[in-house]
Design a protein that fits this description.
By secondary structure, the chain is α/β, with parallel strands linked by helices. It has twelve helices and seven strands. The chain has two domains: 1-31; 39-279, Vaccinia Virus protein VP39 (Rossmann fold). It has helices at 3-21, 35-40, 47-50, 53-56, 58-65, 84-91, 112-127, 129-132, 163-169, 172-182, 213-222, 261-267, and strands at 72-76, 96-101, 136-139, 154-160, 183-194, 225-231, 272-279. It has a seven-stranded mixed β-sheet with strand order 3-2-1-4-5-7-6, with helices on both faces. The chain starts with a helix and ends with a strand.
Amino acid sequence: MSSRLIVLLFVLLNAALACADDPKLGTDKIAPPSALEQAVAHPERTPENTGRDADRHPLQTLEFFGVAADMTVVELWPGGGWYTEILAPLLHANGRLIAAGFDPQASGESGRYLREGAMNFNDKMAADESLYGRVEITILAPPTQVEIAPPNSADAVLSFRNAHSWLADGTFSEVLKAVHKALKADGIFGIEEHRADPQAQVDLKVKNGYVNEAVLIAEVEKAGFALLAKSEINANPLDTRNHPRGVWTLPPTLALGEKDLERYQKIGESDRMTLRFRKR
């Protein structure tokens, strides 16, 4: 057999082996969906929530944060449970999900939103024992109630569009202390937040809901975290970040109602930073 023929056979054999190992080639070689992909596609997610996937990119966001099915994860202020609908089935069998929610006893008229939010979330959890029966609910009401999870127990703590509220009421430092305490050594703190125009004057009270990225990073790093990575997964270049009712002008709130509705729907949800930190 000539050396040229031997080389040709060797090349063809390698090509055949590569095709056999490539999950993209042949329907019988398609890789099964990951646990995270299955959770995002879970049939119990509500249609209203899945309709926002194109804006919120849950699969890519949770992959960026490094969330896995065998982790202990704390979700801060889960609100209506948008991400809980994904995290609960993901962590149900081999992980642990702790939802550090609103205070159901929040006082005064200003606490009505928190009380109602806590009630609605708790009702949602109780309505489906098979899906949410293992979700543990704690209370995050800084500065008084900040025991979100046992110390050094969490692999990851996640916050989706909440930091502006804590910055606005001056409790962000207390929340960061709680997160640091709950995380294991080298645990991950993932933050997704409405991103202010970096050229705009910094508003520490965050009246329009948009947070200056550099300010947020500095605050988190000062609290004992190291920034590992940034992602543009949730960026939206159509968002001018200059709206009559701030970020709440945009979907899903649409604070102006029918006024300029089509315009704001075309913009979509806000421009957002997505940041991954590590506990130092």
